[in-house]
Amino acid sequence: MQKKINILMVTGVYFPEVNGAVLQCKRIISLLKIKVNFIVLTTSRHKNLIDNDVVDGVDIFRSYSGNSGAKLLQIIKIFSVFFTKRFDIVHLHGFSSRSALIVLVSKLFNKKVIIKMTSFGHDDAISIKSKGRLFFYIFSLADFYIGVAPKFREMYSQSGLNKSEYYQVPNGVDTDLFSPLDGDEEKKRLRYELGLPVDLNLILVVGHFSVEKSANHVLDAWLKIHKESDNKSGIVFIGNTDKNNFEVDNDLVNLMHSKSRDFVEDKIFFVEKTNNIEQYYQAADVYILSSAREGLPNTLLEAMSCALPVISTRLEGVTDWVINHKVNGMMYDYGDIDNLKLLLENLLQDDNLCKCLGLNARKTIKDNFEISATTENIYDIYKDCMC
To answer: How far apart are the C-alpha atoms of 243 and 153, rounded to whole Å?
Structure first.
């Protein structure tokens, strides 16, 4: 039998905290456990999660990130894991000041480093370079880099880093889990279980309530439609509103609650979190991604896998790589609420268009973004890193 590779997976948060990146890591770990020994190093703002944990047979080591005084404890946790645990490769999901420290510690302990760049405009190679020579130097110490979309390759090529160390591996989707239901009766049953109305066209928006995610743009477009006609539609917003979460903009949360006050629990629904996100895709009729920047949004891929017609901001080398406008989805320029309104009206009024876009979207994901292919590509990188 081939010797197992030992990996330290480093993420911002990990299960039971849930977001797209967490689910991606969790699925990769689950599919590779036969060939790879994983341990996870992560953080949490919830003190009840700080104790070391085991999730699906994988050891999880957490440190508290709730205040500035916790940084010393994070450093102690990092060194403790490096001193006491056996691993060959450090796989970082995203790059930050904490990641920079981990890269330096990794090199001190003679560990190989893989950096997955997760968000264009934040941790792509050129964005890192713009944050200072020292920061970029530490970034450049990694052995391999993973980009999730063509825009990352473009930025990497401009950075001057070794092109042979770059791999492009898109995020993957479990198309069996994220799959459409058989018919309208199944959808009605699921909506009843989720406490959602069965007689409305439901628009789904998933993501933290941050300025960059811009869920308020979807609300504003819907309010314009509602003002002009008595349409039978509603919106489900799924996302964290906790003001202690650094990704959440409290002013935006308050603004959205104020604007939607007359419709809450009637046509507008706020879901703080769910461990069964696939059910909300299956229960919805339209999905909208309104972000100013992304890496390769898992939520968009998951919605498309569930055969939802999607509307997304046109993000060069990111979403426009996945979506062919009016073939397997719709795109608009970020912030153009009037155009978003028109595209949404088209979908709400045309069932045949929705069905056609949804079927093409599902095919796109099955042909190009299966989680099994993503996982095997990552395993190949691990093997290359061990050579």
So the answer is: 35
pLDDT in tens, 181-227: 988 899 999 999 999 999 999 999 998 898 999 999 999 999 999 98
250-259 and 215-228 helices cross at what angle (nearest 10)? Answer: 10
pLDDT at 338: 97
Q: Which amino acid is at 87?
A: F
CB-neighbour burial class of residue 264 (10 A; exposed 0-12, middle 13-18, buried 19+): exposed
| Two structure tokens written together for 182 | 């058989």
What interhelical angle do 298-305 and 20-32 show, nearest 10? 70
In the three-class reduction of DSSP (H, G, I as helix; E, B as strand; rest coil), residue 18 is classed as coil
Token duo for residue 230: 């008595």
- Name residues whose C-beta falls within 8 Å of residue 247's C-beta, 6 or more positions apart in sequence: 208, 210, 240
pLDDT at residue 230 in the model: 73
Cα distance between residue 209 and residue 195, in whole Å: 22
Domains assigned to the chain: 5-172+370-386 (3.40.50.2000), 184-368 (3.40.50.2000)
Nearest to 216 by CA among 246, 254, 243: 254
Name the residue among 317, 357, 313, 355 with its Cα closest to residue 335: 313
| DSSP states along 54-123 | EETTEEEEEEE-SSGGGHHHHHHHHHHHHHH---SEEEEES--HHHHHHHHHHHHTT-EEEEE---TTTT
Q: At what angle do helices 371-386 and 20-32 cross, to 10 degrees?
A: 70
Of the candidates 298, 356, 355, 315, the residue with the CA atom closest to the CA atom of residue 118? 298
